[in-house]
Amino acid sequence: MSVVDKILSKVTPVPGEEKRAEATAEARAHCQPGDWLSLALDHHEQIRACFAACRRAESAEARVAAMKELALILNGHSLAEEVVLYPALAQAGEKLHAGHAYTEQTTAKMQMAELENIQPSTPEWMDKLTHIEGAVLTHMFEEESSWFLRLKEKGERQEHLTERFREEFDRYCGTGGWAGGERRDETTAPGAAI
Length: 194
What we know:
About 75% of the residues lie in helices and about 0% in strands. The protein has about 190 residues and is an all-alpha fold.
């Protein structure tokens, strides 16, 4: 982990598992079946599962494969948020949070590109993965504990947000999307451009 990574992890510590679980449960309480919020929370669960798969991977080949699956869901989810949810958040009077969200996701994409350039068999690879996971978990906590609840409360055209969020995610991840952490549409490319 770089010096900058270490400093950032001290300045913005990762919320504990219990706090994150409480935020997720609270956000789930505001969902309607199949709405944009439930889809986003499902993606968050898949992202957490992909990070766990990366941590469990023992060989360099397994780590690369797990990283590609993580990159796919992470990129598809973040792009759908950036194209649909964050503009809606800004329009709902939360411009500061929307801008912060964009910055965090851009940083995560740059960090994933760095991870791709580290030998997967080294401890440095796992250190970088751990740093990225901490940043992503913190970002998801911010969304689940406040930003998305505000968008659910103040955002207009909720059905339109759901339709557009699903459309943008599917544009990146394939029309079959994801179900329970597994790709449904195996005809799309297995890797992701980071």
